[in-house]
Amino acid sequence: MKMSVRFAGMGGQGIIFAGIVLARAAALYEKREGRELYAIQTQSYGPAARGESSKCDVVICDEQAFYPFVERPDFLVVMSQPAFDKYIEQVYQGTIVILEEDVVEGRPDLTYYGVNALKKAERLGKREAANMVMLGTLVQISGVISREAGLRAINDLSPMGSLDANEAAFREGYAIGKSFQSEG
To answer: Would you give the end-to-end CA distance of the chain in angstroms?
Structure first.
């Protein structure tokens, strides 16, 4: 098994944090039928921390992998229009796209799920947790890690004062992913 994910958006949206959480959950907390998962995470961002493009790639395998780059992701999680414009051309017909519905205007000619992550996070009281809504949706749709492994990694990595909001947002995204699965 090998799966690749690209998170893409703007600096300040927690794109890299989402990828780090996913990689940690897979590598440290997900056990499948007695087999371990391995994860490689790479990141890049513009010269400014906020407002520039940002991406984080995660490769998850059931055996050790040494090539950390994602050329054509299995999943593309997009939180900004510039990221959509930049990375949608780097997918293949089987890529599943999860996009921030209120921000991304384009719609790919692929399987995609539109999520109102910003609105959901605002309703939960922390707009900055929209990345965790998107991560929860990805986790449920992809099945690559369990909900519990994701929550454990969020618990490990959340900055002080953000844990409750991040966990709530992740759970909300997971429920959204479930609702998509029951529709299809």
So the answer is: 24
Prediction pTM value? 0.93
**pLDDT tens per residue across span 115-159:** 999 999 999 989 899 999 999 999 999 999 999 999 999 999 999
Distance CA 177, CA 103 (A): 19
Find the CATH number of the domain harbouring 132: 3.40.920.10
CA 133 to chain CA centroid, nearest Å:
9
How many structural domains comprise the chain? 1
